[in-house]
């Protein structure tokens, strides 16, 4: 085997091994990035559920307060049955 063919074989093997290592490295990076997307999505869903629970609790409190207190809409005119306070 000649010196030139040995150098060509060594260069080709080195380049091939380097490319294989690079592809595996990039695949692992992409997999990690995709997993981070899943983690962020799960966090968004958790926050959304918490906000929905808070909203439901506020709605229940509002309904309870309206039952216990005499509340009227300030945008509607007062009915003719009740006189404005003097």
Task: Walk me through what this model shows.
- The chain has a domain at 26-60.
- 77% of the residues lie in helices and 0% in strands.
- The chain has 86 residues and is an all-alpha fold.
- The mean pLDDT is 89.
- The longest helix is centred in the middle third of the chain and has 66 residues, at 3-68.
- The protein has one helix at 3-68.
- It contains one helix and no strands.
- The radius of gyration is 35 Å and the shape is rod-shaped.
Q: TL;DR?
A:
This protein is mostly helical and 86 residues long. It contains one helix and no strands.
Number of helices: 1
Number of E strands: 0
List low-confidence stretches.
none
What is the residue-averaged pLDDT? 89
What is the radius of gyration computed over CA atoms, rounded to a whole number of angstroms? 35 Å
Main sheet attributes: strand count, strand direction, barrel closure: none
Strand percentage, roughly?
Answer: under 5%
